[in-house]
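re the bet — no i am not wrong, look at it urself. input seq straight from the record:
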Amino acid sequence: MQTIDPAVEIAPTEPQTHSMFRGPAAYVPHTPWTAGWGTLASIGVFVVALLAAGAMIASISVEQVGIEVAGTLMQQAVMIAATWYVATRYGGKAYDVMALRAPAQGLKAYPIAFALLLLATVIMSNIIRLIDPELAKGDIAIFKTMFASQWWWVAFILVGIGAPLSEELLTRGFLFSALSRSLLKTHGAVTVFFLGWIIATYLSAPSSPVDILKPALVGTFFFYLFVKSGLLAKLSNVKIGVYGASLITSGLWALVHLYSPVGMAQVFVIGMLFSWVLIRTGSLRVAIVCHALYNTLMATLIVAKLI
């Protein structure tokens, strides 16, 4: 199994001083994983984590909220451990593969990134409020239930620590580096097409098998055109790069949250912001800290019944 590119240097050099807003980006991928194998490994990590959560849920007998909290915590713990493990395979160093070095801009990168995150959140929240204040309320219902239960303190751990670590290490850490250094290739181009089809199908809010069949037929026709027009061949030779990796990882990150379309759009925008922060700073630490602070702030607002 050819998973390694021997020509890839995995030992990084110390980053030079970079600006958050101009000049060259600080991020450079250092990983032995290619896009295809890195994607398969990421899927494997996610599936193993889900299976571990399922085993945990099946082995305990408490109230429903406690089961959900315990299952989520197990999923996050296994995801962190499994991601760290795969990052060290084939000569990789987890610290380098997942860009866990200090940000190129030093400590000032943290408040700048968090301020941008808050600004983006305020703008998105106001847009949603203008459209329909009820649109995203269902997305936080489960969290309200968790924080109103006796398991509220565990919920704070999984929201403020578990989620930022597990999600950032796997998506913008391990998978991002594999994608950003690779060509899209045929299987990647096909995956991008069908990922777009899945998102379009979800946004159409199908309520029956017939509703799913319609976009499936349309998608099949457009896929035929996609291949015959030569777009598939052209897209296969495109280097994914950091911006392609940003789009893919942010899209996947939004999908696995299983929120409403509006909620998923918010998650996608935040994911793109975290990716930009990673690219500019060269460090996943900043995204992890911002993610943790944001989740903790949202959890506090929920407990205080301010949202």
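see?? The two ends are 51 Å apart (CA to CA). told u. also Confidence is low (pLDDT under 50) at residues 6-13. so pay up
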